[in-house]
Specification:
The chain is built from ten helices and 13 strands. With about 325 residues, it is α/β, with parallel strands linked by helices. The relative contact order is 0.20. The structure holds oxa(dethia)-CoA (UT7).
Length: about 325
C-alpha cells in the first residue's frame, strides 16, 4: 500500500513586495538581493490576512483538485513555525474553518522542513491504515518573526502556504521519506523568544530570526546533497530517473549547488524562490503546486522533494506523482 498525492494547492497573501520596495526600507539593493539570493519578489500578509487564511486557501485548492469534500478527510497535519495562536493548534483551527469533524488534527514544528516532516507522518498513517484521506499543509508567516530593520534577514523571507491531499493507492505514490535533525546547529538559525517565556516582552526586546547566513549556507548545501543521495540509494535509483527536483527555496545559489552535487540539470529543478522568497515550511509544497499547475509536473513523473531548516532539521520524499 502506498499513499498518493491526489491534489495540490497553494495560497499567497495579497501584498507583493519587490526588491525595489525593500530598498526604501533598509540599506539594500535589488542587485545585491538578486545576485546573492535569486529573489525578485515575495508576498507578505496584508492587514486583514493571517496564517490560517493562507492554510485554508491552500487546502481548499488542493481538495478541489482532488475532488475531496470535508466528510472524506480523516487526518489534518500542518507544518508551521508561526502558528495562529498557542492553542487550539493550527490543525484544529483549520478543521473548524473547513467544516471537518472528528479526526486527528495537529501541527508540527520543524521550521523550513515542516511540510516534509508532516508529509512523512501522514504517509505513515496512510500506509498503516490509520487514515484514508489526509490533508498535509505547510503554512507560514515568517514576516511576523523577521526584524524589518535587519537587512541580513528581512530581504530573504516571504509568507505563503502549500498543501496536498493524500489517499491510499496500490499504485506507487510516495516511495520513501527520510527525516533527520541535529540540534547541535541550533545557534546558527533561531528565534529565541518563546511562549513558555511569557508575553511580557515589549516590542523592543522581542526577538526575531537570527541567522549566521554563511554557516547555514554551507551546511544546507552539504546536507541537501547528502539526503538526495540517501533517497536515491534507498530506492536503488539514479539521478537520471528523476523527472523533477523540488527543493526548499531559500537561495538560488543553494539550489544550484545542491543540483550540481546531484548532477541534476537546472532545467529539471522547480524554482520559485525568485517569486516567493523563502516561505519556510510552505516553500516545498508551493513549488510543487506551481509545477503541477503550470503543467511541468505530470502524472507518472518521479519527484524528489527535499528541505532543510532551523534546528537544523532536514528531510526528503521520493515520489511517483
Ligand atoms: O531556510 C533555512 C535556511 N536558510 C538559508 O538557507 C539561508 C542560507 N544563507 C544564505 O542564503 C546566504 O548566506 C545569505 C543570502 C543570507 C547571505 O549571502 P552571503 O553571500 O553569504 O553574504 P554575506 O552574509 O557574506 O554578506 C556579504 C556582504 C556583507 O557586507 P561586508 O561585510 O562584505 O561589507 C553584508 O553586510 O553583504 C552585506 N549584506 C547586504 N548588503 C546589501 C548582507 N545583507 C545585505 C543586504 N543588502 N540585504
Amino acid at each position: 500500500m502506498f499513499s498518493r498525492i491526489v491534489g495540490t494547492g497553494s495560497h499567497l497573501p495579497s501584498r507583493c513586495v519587490s526588491n525595489a520596495d525593500l530598498e526604501k526600507m533598509v540599506d539594500t539593493s535589488d542587485e545585491w538581493i538578486r545576485t546573492r539570493t535569486g529573489i525578485k519578489t515575495r508576498y507578505l500578509l496584508g492587514d486583514d490576512e493571517s496564517n490560517l487564511d493562507l492554510a485554508e486557501g491552500a487546502v481548499r485548492n488542493a481538495m478541489e483538485m482532488a475532488g475531496v469534500g470535508p466528510d472524506e478527510v480523516d487526518l489534518i497535519i500542518v507544518g508551521t513555525t508561526t502558528p495562529e495562536q498557542v492553542f487550539p493548534n493550527m490543525g484544529c483551527l483549520l478543521q473548524q474553518r473547513l467544516d471537518i469533524h472528528d479526526c486527528p488534527a495537529f501541527s508540527l514544528e520543524a521550521a523550513c522542513t515542516g511540510f516534509v516532516y508532516a508529509l512523512s507522518v501522514a504517509d505513515m498513517f496512510i500506509k498503516t491504515g490509520g487514515a484514508k484521506c489526509a490533508v498535509v499543509v505547510g503554512s507560514e508567516t515568517l514576516s511576523s518573526i523577521v526584524d524589518w530593520t535587519d537587512r541580513q534577514t528581512c530581504v530573504l523571507f516571504g509568507d505563503g502556504a502549500g498543501a496536498v491531499v493524500l489517499k491510499p493507492s496500490e499504485e506507487p505514490g510516495i516511495l520513501s521519506t527520510h527525516l533527520s535533525a541535529d540540534g547541535k546547529y541550533g545557534d546558527l538559525l533561531y528565534v529565541s523568544s518563546g511562549v513558555s517565556k511569557g508575553f511580557e516582552g515589549s516590542e523592543s526586546n522581542r526577538d526575531y530570526v537570527q541567522m549566521r547566513g554563511n554557516d547555514v549556507f554551507k551546511v544546507a548545501v552539504r546536507t541537501l546533497g547528502k539526503i538526495a543521495q540517501i533517497a536515491l540509494d534507498h530506492n536503488d535509483m539514479s539521478t537520471d530517473e528523476l523527472t523533477w527536483l523540488v527543493p526548499h527555496q531559500a537561495n538560488i545559489r543553494i539550489i544550484q549547488a545542491a543540483a550540481k552535487k546531484l548532477s541534476m540539470p537546472m532545467e529539471k529543478v522547480i524554482q520559485t524562490v525568485q517569486d516567493h522568497g523563502n516561505t519556510s515550511a510552505a516553500s516545498v509544497p508551493l513549488a510543487l503546486d506551481t509545477g503541477v499547475r503550470d503543467g511541468r509536473i505530470k502524472r507518472g513523473d518521479t519527484l524528489l522533494l527535499e528541505a532543510f531548516g532551523g534546528g537544523f532539521t532536514w528531510g526528503s520524499a521520493l515520489i511517483k506523482y
